Automatic annotation (TrEMBL), chain A:
Its main location: nucleus. Belongs to the CENP-W/WIP1 family. CDD domains: HFD_CENP-W (cd13732). This is Centromere protein W-like. It comes from Sinocyclocheilus anshuiensis. InterPro entries: CENP-W, CENP-W/WIP1, Histone-fold. It is found in: Chromosome, Centromere, Kinetochore; Nucleus. GO terms for cellular component: kinetochore; nucleoplasm.
Length: 75, 799
């Protein structure tokens, strides 16, 4: 889906704790990053949901995957 | 060594087999399985029964296999890890094929082959007959016999063995191992043996040559799969969620028990209803109580103490009566409130709208129980709550008035209201509220400005407490309060009644009272609201708190509350029906002066009821206003509560709070400024803090798109949490990268580094690819330099 990425919200998030500044298009990259991560999250959740033979992705699927994912995308 | 051992064992087994076993269908899977297991386990000659069986099977297979040009027997025997290539055995076996060992080897090899390759039937057939022939011819009858018999035996044996083996070692691989070879054997066998036995048991294995083999092979894997699948199959937990019906029933039961249990505390909507009803009853009895106890626990009120006694009696009476008609009047009450709210729009429409909604349901609930009195009172309370500014002031005034005029007014009101109230519970409540308000107004004007102010302050506090309590929906507390503050409630009731009746008068009186009250209450209200807010959080403590408050506030506040409540309510009403209020206020004032504070609850109730019924319409708007105020205030105070609690409960709270606000109307009014501000501030602040992640629509759409399957909608909060954590980490990392680069701003390259570290970007997947993949076009352009005509690159590159 090509939707509008909420750049302002992203910027807000990124600047929450720090005083560091965000470059010009860096928030776009952030958007990209988020998308990629979300994509991965969705994939993993989908797999997990399949494991339980459910066609719908439910919350516990996502939660179970999240921890592992957060660890992996640590950089 | 292994082989020799195996051979020995195999030979032994074979002998055993030959001697003991009946000719059976050709080697079955079990044989192969046995073989495999043997192989895998390196079981040289030792034999546990299973292994022995396996060995036997193997041997049989070997024998049968030996007939066919199969790979070396050694392979299968010597626990060779690769059991798979059934026919890969080197040729040295051939020599051995002639021997029993060789035969066994062949059998085993064949078996594996057969079991492994399901499709190997033709091969098997070809191989089997060949080896069989060969074996027969070469090995002689014995072999032939063996082969044939063995084959059959094997098959026969294998069947049970297969089962046995299966039990021992269910390994798909093993079984499927030499499917081809096995099948071949099977095919041969049927040719050889089918006539012999095949039919009975062998049919299972091989109905017709190849088929038998197939069957065998098919069976085991099939079984295996089934078994395996069974293991894998995990039934979703058969939780039985409680049926909705059962739940509803339980709820209703609670509701029914509610009124009698009001003190028991639940804060469910149901209990709230009940308690609210009770509260109303209390309120009805004591006007002050109404204000005091609006939903919360009604009677925080200072005036409660004094009124408590009187009201208590009333309340009980009302409560009993109220339970039945609860539903009806409540609804009506709600409507009334709505009407009032509409009218009150003039006053404080904005915030009240929400409150009204809340109030209406609450009113409905509350009204239901007692007759109009309760309804009217709570309505008035609610309305007052909504319009804090006015209500508070009015209430204060009313309280004062109530004290003086209680007896008289109530009586008068009761007369009038009785008739009407009985019919229209709503009206009563409203009237009562109005009366209260009016009374307040009257009292304020007439009695003493100073007192009013003082009262207002106290009332405000009380009201606030009450409101808080209401908001928190501590019915129990409220109920208790009510009982405790019968007097106050009674007075409140009277006041409301008066207010209802003479809305105009009340309004008139209310306004000035309100003004006066505002001054004094301003200070009182603010702390009040804080208290209220605190109350919201500490529902539990309401009871205690209210009680405590009531006590200290009690006597001194009582009169104050009343006038305050009256003031507040009348003010509210005044907005709508100044004339009516004025009228009512005047008589109320007079009455208040005369009537002792403590009246029979019944009287008060009656009066309230009457008054309520009499001037329902005018009161309604007032009440609505009050409610609105209350709502506004409640909303502000109970913003959290409302957010947390269902609308139903909220409404109840509002209702009760409105009632209580009859007292605290003054508070409201006083805090009109601060109150409204608070009301507005609270929700806004909450909203901001609560939402800080990406918009739900965007996230969900992305997720759904990526997921490609249906996604539960309640997943969003979980995703939010995850994203939040991720964001934090992301920010930290980026900052680290930037600092490392001795820069002060996070740049694109920092992100690239991040993605690389995350593994999203590798040497083979440049970032740009990702960019194109995910981002919409306009963004892509910004990120990726694109060469356009005229030797321009977009975006501008700084080289």
């Amino acid at each position: 889906m090509s939707k509008k990425a909420p750049r302002a919200a992203l910027k807000l998030h990124m600047k929450k704790n720090t005083n560091i500044r965000i470059g010009k298009n860096a928030d776009l990259m952030a958007q990209l990053n988020i998308l990629v991560v979300l994509h991965r999250l969705a994939e993993e959740s989908r797999v997990k949901a399949f494991e339980e033979k459910s066609a719908t992705i439910k919350v516990h699927h996502v939660r179970a995957v999240a921890k592992k994912l957060l660890k992996s995308t640590r950089g | 060594m292994d082989s020799t051992e195996d051979d020995i064992s195999a030979r032994v087994l074979l002998r055993r087999v030959l001697h003991t076993e009946l000719p059976r269908s050709p080697v079955t899977r079990s044989a192969t399985i046995v073989r495999r297991s043997m192989r895998l386990k390196n079981t040289p000659g030792l034999e546990s029964p299973g292994s022995a069986l396996r060995h036997r099977l193997k041997k049989k297979l070997h024998e049968s296999a030996s007939l066919s040009p199969l790979p070396s027997p050694k392979r299968p025997r010597s626990t060779v890890p690769n059991t798979n290539p059934p026919v890969t055995v080197p040729s040295p076996v051939y020599d051995e094929d002639m021997t029993t060992r060789g035969l066994l080897r062949g059998i085993i090899q064949m078996e594996t082959e057969a079991s492994l390759l399901m499709s190997g039937q033709p091969a098997l057939q070809a191989s089997e007959p060949n080896p069989a022939e060969a074996s027969m011819s070469s090995a002689g009858e014995r072999t032939e016999g063996l082969s044939g018999v063995e084959l059959s035996d094997l098959t026969l044996n294998t069947e049970p063995l297969t089962h046995v083996v299966r039990g021992l070692s269910r390994r798909k691989l093993q079984r499927a191992f030499s499917a081809s070879a096995f099948e071949k054997q099977l095919d041969q066998l049927p040719g050889d043996i089918s006539e012999e036995k095949a039919d009975a048991s062998q049919d299972l294995d091989w109905s017709s040559g190849s088929k038998s083999g197939l069957n065998l092979t098919l069976k085991t894997p099939f079984v295996e799969k089934r078994i395996e699948r069974v293991g894998l199959q995990r039934k979703v937990s058969n939780r039985r969620l409680p049926s909705v019906d059962a739940f509803d029933e339980a709820v209703q039961r609670c509701l029914e028990q509610g009124p009698s249990q009001d003190h028991s505390v639940f804060q469910d909507g149901k209990t709230l209803e009940d308690s609210s009803w009770q509260k109303f009853t209390l309120c009805l009895n004591d006007v002050t109580e109404l204000y005091v106890q609006p939903k919360k626990d009604d009677t925080v009120g200072p005036s409660a103490e004094m009124e408590r006694d009187a009201e208590y009696e009333r309340e009980h009476e009302l409560e009993r009566a109220s339970e039945i008609p609860d539903s009806g009047p409540l609804i009506q009450g709600g409507k009334d409130h709505e009407l009032e709210s509409q009218d009150d729009d003039e006053e404080d429409v904005v915030p009240s709208s929400q409150e009204d909604v809340f109030l209406s349901p609450e009113d409905d609930i509350v009204l239901a129980p007692t007759q109009a009195m309760t309804e009217s009172l709570p309505e008035s309370c609610d309305v007052e709550l909504q319009d804090r500014e006015f209500v508070e002031e009015v209430e204060i005034g009313n309280v004062v008035e109530i004290e003086d005029q209680k007896v008289v007014e109530i009586e008068d009101d009761s007369i009038e209201d009785e008739n009407v109230v009985e019919d229209e519970d709503e009206n009563v409540v409203e009237d009562e509220d109005e009366n209260v308000v009016e009374d307040k107004d009257e009292n304020v004007e007439e009695i003493e400005d100073e007192n009013v102010e003082e009262i207002e302050d106290e009332e405000v506090e009380e009201v606030q407490d009450e409101n808080v309590e209401e908001i928190e929906d501590e019915e129990v507390v409220e109920a208790k309060h009510r009982t405790e503050n019968p007097d106050t409630s009674q007075y409140l009731e009277r006041i409301t009644r008066r207010a209802h009746r003479s809305e105009g008068g009340g309004s008139v009186l209310g306004i000035p009272a309100a003004t006066r009250v505002t001054k004094s209450f301003g200070a009182g209200l603010n702390p009040r609201e804080k208290d209220l807010l605190d109350f919201i959080d500490g529902n539990r403590d309401l009871q205690d708190f209210s009680d405590e408050e009531r006590e200290p506030l009690g006597s001194p506040e009582f009169p104050q509350l009343h006038p305050a409540a009256e003031l507040s309510t009348p003010e509210q009403r005044s907005q709508q029906h100044e004339a009516s209020l004025a009228e009512e206020d005047v008589p109320e004032l007079e009455e208040d002066d005369d009537a002792p504070e403590e009246l029979n609850q019944s009287e008060e109730e009656e009066e309230l009821m009457d008054s309520g019924s009499a001037s329902q319409s005018p009161e309604l708007p007032q009440e609505e206003e009050e409610e609105e105020e209350e709502d506004d205030d409640d909303d502000a105070l109970s913003a959290e509560l409302s957010m947390k609690t269902p609308a139903f409960v909220r409404q109840k709270r509002v209702f009760t709070s409105s009632i209580a606000q009859a007292m605290p109307t003054v508070l409201k009014e006083v805090n009109a400024g601060p109150a409204t501000q608070v009301a507005k501030r609270a929700p806004r602040q909450k909203r901001q803090t609560g939402v800080d992640v990406l918009p739900k629509s965007y996230v969900m759409s992305m997720f759904k798109h990526f997921a490609k399957t249906r996604v539960a909608s309640d997943i969003y909060p979980a995703i939010n949490e995850i994203l939040k954590k991720y964001f934090e980490r992301l920010a930290d990392d980026l900052e680290a990268y930037t600092t490392h680069a001795k820069r002060k701003t996070i740049e694109v390259e920092d992100f690239e580094l991040l993605m690389r570290r995350q593994g999203f970007v590798t040497d083979s997947t440049p970032v740009n690819i990702l960019i194109e993949k995910y981002l919409p076009l306009e963004y892509r352009k910004l990120l990726i330099p694109v060469a356009s005509s005229g030797n321009k690159v977009i975006p501008k590159q700084r080289r």
